[in-house]
């Protein structure tokens, strides 16, 4: 309808255009580009794991802080405890368990923790070339 087609012919024209090879290729190209832009690369994964392992990656968390103070009640004249709550934003470093997990994953990537041992042995080959006595 936006391209100038009537509502009656818009569907059939759209179907016809989707069969056009150039349009199909363009749609695939745009989809691939959008898909690639949203997928994390291997370098980015390693970068983020490294920052977490080093404790450089921080998170901001909202913490409710509650403080109390004694104030005089104007109705009774007695002192009473009045609480004041407010939200405070706190930056946190990664937990030790998160850092250890990141270190483990980086170690596996660099093959630092191989349980298998590669053994390079040459198996001797015996050749039976001794003549038999008849």
Automatic annotation (TrEMBL):
Q: Which UniProt keywords apply?
A: Viral genome packaging, Viral release from host cell
Recorded hits in InterPro entries, A to Z, give: SPP1-like_terminase, Terminase_Gp1_N_sf, Terminase_ssu
- Domain of life per record: Bacteria
Statement: the UniProt record of this protein carries the keyword Aminoacyl-tRNA synthetase: no
* Pfam families the UniProt entry points to: Terminase_2
Q: Which residues cross the membrane?
A: none
Can you cite a GO biological process for this protein? chromosome organization
Database matches in PANTHER family: TERMINASE SMALL SUBUNIT, TERMINASE SMALL SUBUNIT-RELATED
Q: Give the protein name, as stated in the record.
A: Terminase small subunit
């Amino acid at each position: 309808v936006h391209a100038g087609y009537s509502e009656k012919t818009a569907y059939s024209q759209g179907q016809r255009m989707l069969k056009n090879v150039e349009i199909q290729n363009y749609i695939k190209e745009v989809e691939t580009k959008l898909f690639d832009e949203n997928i994390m690369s291997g370098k980015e994964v390693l970068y983020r794991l490294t920052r977490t392992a080093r404790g450089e990656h921080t998170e901001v968390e909202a913490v409710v802080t509650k403080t109390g103070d004694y104030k005089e009640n104007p109705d009774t004249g007695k002192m009473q405890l009045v609480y004041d709550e407010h939200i405070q934003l706190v930056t946190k470093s990664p937990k030790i368990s998160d850092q250890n997990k990141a270190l483990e994953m980086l170690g596996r990537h660099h093959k630092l923790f191989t349980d298998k041992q590669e053994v390079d042995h040459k198996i001797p080959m015996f050749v039976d070339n001794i003549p038999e006595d008849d």
